[in-house]
Design goal:
By secondary structure, this protein is mainly α. It contains six helices and four strands, in the order ααβααβαββα. The chain has a two-stranded parallel sheet with strand order 1-2. Strands 3-4 form a two-stranded antiparallel sheet. It is globular, with a radius of gyration of 15 Å. The termini are far apart.
């Protein structure tokens, strides 16, 4: 198969669903890989991560994250720029953290897939409250 025909093939149905979920996450909010899988009712964190790795460049990939809030390895600076622009709640890195890179404050930034994207949708706290890194 030539590269042209590979790029012209449709995405697998599961990949389309994962990417659609990523596009629905409001600015300043995140879902973990496991959250996306649970919201879809299909697959698991590794499957979602694989889809994002292969196809996620065209969607807000920085909004689908590790459950511990650690920034995506190799993409930390790009992701951090998006988080700062969107006002995503971040936690200051400890001095022991490699590179002193902040983490996402998952308790405040996590979105449960509700329609509003506001603080009343299951996230703890208002993402606009408090200091942002």
């Amino acid at each position: 198969m030539s590269p042209e025909s590979a790029s012209a093939e449709p995405l697998p149905e599961y990949a389309e669903r994962v990417l659609d979920a990523a596009e629905h996450i409001p600015p300043g909010r995140v879902m973990s890989y496991g959250d996306v899988a649970e919201w879809l009712g299909d697959g698991g964190p590794r499957q979602v991560g694989r889809v994002m790795s292969l196809y996620g460049g065209a969607v807000p990939w920085w909004r689908v994250v590790r459950s511990d809030g650690v920034l995506l390895s190799g993409h930390e600076q790009d992701a951090l720029a998006h988080y700062r622009a969107e006002g995503t709640p971040l936690r200051t890195a400890s001095r022991a953290a490699a590179g002193h890179m902040p983490k996402i404050d998952m308790a405040r930034a996590r979105w449960d897939g509700g329609a509003s994207g506001g603080a009343g949708d299951g996230a703890a706290g208002d993402p606009d409250e408090g200091a942002h890194i």
